[in-house]
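Supplementary Methods, section 5.1.

A reviewer requested that the exact input to the structure prediction be made available. We therefore reproduce it here, unchanged from the version used in the analyses.
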Amino acid sequence: MQTRNLVSFDWAMKRLLRNKANFAVLEGFLSELLKRQIIIKQILESESNQKSIEDKFNRVDVLAEDSNKELMIIEVQYNSQVDYFLRMLYGTSKVITERINKSSPYGVIRKVYSINIVYFDLGQGNDYIYHGKTHFKGLHTHETLQLSEKQREKFGYTEAGDLHPEYYIIKVNQFNDVAKDTLDEWIYFLKNNEIKSDFKAQGLDLACEVMAYDRLTVKELRAYERALDTKWLEDDIVSTAEDRGLQQGLKKGLKQGLEKGLKRGLKKGMQQGMQQGIEKGVEKGIEKGMQQIQIEIARRMLSENEPVEKIMQYTGLSAEQIESLH
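The structure derived from this sequence is encoded token-by-token as follows.
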């Protein structure tokens, strides 16, 4: 396996890896992460794929069903989001509720794994891989609540919490590029779009072929370059908006903090007031700046005569909102 220039994983998931012939790439990644053999039965479509203001810009890059009928959400997120942990919760909840009717028994609800590949420092922690799941512990005995024998036979799990969604967070930028095991080899690839010739992780050999830049068709190459241009544009707008929002937030926060602190008349009160004001002001400023991002992207895409459907997909704006920008 030779080192080659490869397309980004998130773009490949939307274009190349949905082909059943290429499922082995995603199967390899999931198998290395979950530490068991994963066979993907099909790639599913989800209402969560739809971008709209009402859906709070939530997206699912890939929703897969494995051979055990468990659901696996794979999301890639580049830009920092303060509420991303809640977005993860919303995503799993929405996938579950989309697949159950009001008249259906709760027993039809399927296990969901949420795999989040983030390229920013999410939360506070020094590791680059985190796993979270529900545990029911006795307040007095500290024992883990188990399923009954009948429940184990019906659902195929052991603990009560096993029925609930599980979450994986891969903080790509925190990886130090030293691959100590096969999962690290995958994370190295996610960070660098490169597969070293001595890597042996499951799925990477096929990824090296399927995702090779020099194997793209002319149509795929143009689509990939447009996607890169859009991402660079969005990153630029996000960065600009965050800078402006931070400046506005700091100014407003300092003013509020000073006023609150002066009213208290105490040094301690003034310090606390300034800190609270700064935090609140920064949060509001960034939020306001982010609201302008989607509008700015839409305007630029309109200037390049991009179709309304595509602009809706990339910005989350409705057709009426986009038409109003003409």
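Residues 218-264 form the longest helix (47 residues). These observations are discussed further in the main text.
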